[in-house]
Amino acid sequence: MKKLVLPFLAILFFVSESIVVDLWPKNEFYEKYIFVPRFLLITIVFITVYVTRFYGIVYGFVFGLLYDVFYTEILGVYMFIFALIAYLTSKAMRVFYNNVLVTSFISIVAVSIVEFYVYGIYLLIGKTDMLFEIFLYNRLLPTLFLNTIFVILVSYPLKQQLIKLPIREREDEDYLL
Q: What single DSSP character describes residue 3?
């Protein structure tokens, strides 16, 4: 039964992103600013740190593909970046001390990397004509604000849940300084 916790958490946060978008207020203030929930990405970062690098990369790849299929018109954009973020997170945790604050900070940095990457790809292929300043102030900063609130609320309970998993055969030698 405990083996189903990890897929359940990933699916829960995958679905919760679209639910948050649907339930988000629709007044003038929120029409100007774009709040993009990246709950799944944050979960993938936490899976990479507190379960294993392998699970983080696999979940990043699989759920990135699902993200591409359900939410975007271009296959491979999120599949590549989610798996890459999991890999880079595992490499970063070799340098940094492993605690919930560092993991939370890395997850917010990951959100900003994904936002810049997606903006760059869409700008490159002509799917958006948003100016960089508008992207920065109307999309990136509100997105970072929303996801920081999410990390503050969820980071410690998520860490505790991931640490208790039986599949947690951590690669401790990879995380030693």
A: G
